[in-house]
Amino acid sequence: MDATTKTCTPINFAEKLSLIAEHWPPRVIAELNDYQFKIVRIEGDFIWHDHKETDEAFIVLEGTLRIDFRDGFVALGPGEMVVVPKGVEHKPFAAGEVTMLLIEPRGTLNTGDEGGGRTAQNDRWI
Amino acid sequence: MDATTKTCTPINFAEKLSLIAEHWPPRVIAELNDYQFKIVRIEGDFIWHDHKETDEAFIVLEGTLRIDFRDGFVALGPGEMVVVPKGVEHKPFAAGEVTMLLIEPRGTLNTGDEGGGRTAQNDRWI
Fold it and tell me: Which label site among A11, A60, B50, B114 has the fewest CB atoms less than 10 Å from its CB?
């Protein structure tokens, strides 16, 4: 990573991850128009939820991410991604620690329309 | 990568890249609402261009990507990304081969508003 411009700053995923110890709350690392790139460290089970208004992209950096759907699951490792269509109920699960990128519109909550105690504060940058 | 659901299909970047020999033309691998994820294999110099209507995200998978701006440059390796703001002239360059992801709205041309012989056919899926 190197930069001699004021136009924009390169972002290193490992460097951003090194600043996060906590599991689950996503942190924003970049914006693309009204979309955000978020980095997140997870382990264990999340809750069933959906996002009525938007698709959601997952890119795995480390570990094996499983996403359960009502009709089955996907499992992805580093160098793999999936787009969960809007309105589709899903439940992320990580048997071991997983680090990943989320790409979704600004304002998207981690628990979608479900709410509850697992809902993370939105729009936290790192 | 594993899936037992019809809801959505995981995408493996290396697998998609293995289907591309040609340098420069981006291929769409996924859509997130009206945004597209494209993979591209590049080497050498591109042309100066900008995208008047949109920011553009680059995520490097392999190699070292340099993006020149009128006031300097950034250089990024695997596990790094940058968002080039809309309207900012830039010129990608790869001394050796680079593979990367582009994330941008559907309809974004690789040469932006510049046109010319380096303009790739848009919306080609792989």
Answer: B114
